[in-house]
Write a structure and sequence with these properties.
15-stranded antiparallel β-sheet, 5 helices, 39% strand, Porin, mainly beta, 15 strands, 278 residues
């Protein structure tokens, strides 16, 4: 199964329009399209239309889409040069815009392969405890991922134990996907909200305002290390970065986000507004 099949992304007769059926398996526990899945679908559509690999993409999330809606994704190629394209994808349900994604795609021959960030020193995936679903049996995007606590607190140990320096890490994989892709990394890069809960040592997370993915080099790997750094929280918003490493230590991509910080109850899906938390 590739990323398009995982997402259920469907081409239309128009090479510039794609369709994304919103299902519970692409949604959050709160019942709306997971931001990483929206960005992943837009990336797959952009790559499919331009026939070029992603360099970077940034999504602005404007509204929610809930099952059984269908998000139409319209691709606009603003500039197409010899080696790169500048394009955008707009996802909408009828006349309601859900997200806008701006992107650059392409590749250039350059004999430089360097990395200047290093991952946290963590145990191998098989030596880390699994992270179970918060609500056992729920059908959501989380039920389609496999996560292991590389440097992070379990549910029962989270409250009152903030992560040192706001940094945490998970091993992640999508069992249905055999090979990583830019769309796969977009789904797994949407983990700053997780990092916020770890940084605060609280049942907290957030709703994404945006998500940016910058692809360095994609290599075959079963597990992907999500090295999450929360940079800061103020005025009800949180900001952070996720570096995505292959098992061999290759930096594949970085993702960054700003979120609305929200708190939630352990026994309930979704989140509630920060000002309601006491």
């Amino acid at each position: 199964m590739d990323a398009r099949q995982f997402l259920g992304l469907e081409p239309s007769h128009n090479p510039y329009r794609w369709h994304l059926p919103v299902t519970p398996g692409l949604s959050t526990g709160g019942g709306f399209l997971f931001g990483g899945c929206g960005l992943g679908a837009a990336i797959a559509a952009l790559e499919g239309t331009t026939e070029r690999p992603l360099v970077w993409a940034t999504a602005q999330y404007l509204s929610y889409a809930q099952p059984p809606a269908v998000v139409d994704i319209d691709v606009h190629v603003a500039v197409s040069g010899r080696q790169s394209s500048q394009a955008r994808a707009v996802g909408h349900v009828a006349d309601r815009e859900i997200f806008t994604v701006n992107a650059a795609l392409g590749s250039r021959p350059l004999d430089i392969d360097a990395t200047y960030v290093t991952p946290l020193d963590v145990p191998a995936p098989e030596d880390c405890d699994p992270r179970p679903l918060r609500i056992p049996g729920e059908e959501s995007i989380m039920s389609r991922l496999e996560l292991r606590l590389a440097s992070a607190r379990a549910w029962e140990d989270l409250k009152g134990s903030p992560a040192v320096g706001g940094r945490s890490a998970l091993w992640a994989r999508i069992p249905d996907l055999l090979e990583p892709s830019a769309a796969t990394l977009a789904i797994l890069g949407d983990y700053v909200p997780f990092g916020i809960g770890q940084a605060l040592g609280a049942f907290a997370g957030g709703n994404s305002l945006d998500n940016t993915l910058r692809v360095r080099r994609i290599v075959p790997t079963e597990w992907i290390l999500l090295d999450i750094q929360v940079d800061g929280i103020a005025s009800g918003f949180g900001h952070g970065t996720v570096h995505l490493f292959a098992q061999d230590g290759t930096l594949m991509a970085s993702a960054s986000q700003s979120t609305i910080v929200r708190f939630w109850e352990p026994e309930r899906p979704g989140t509630r507004a920060q000002e309601e938390h006491s």
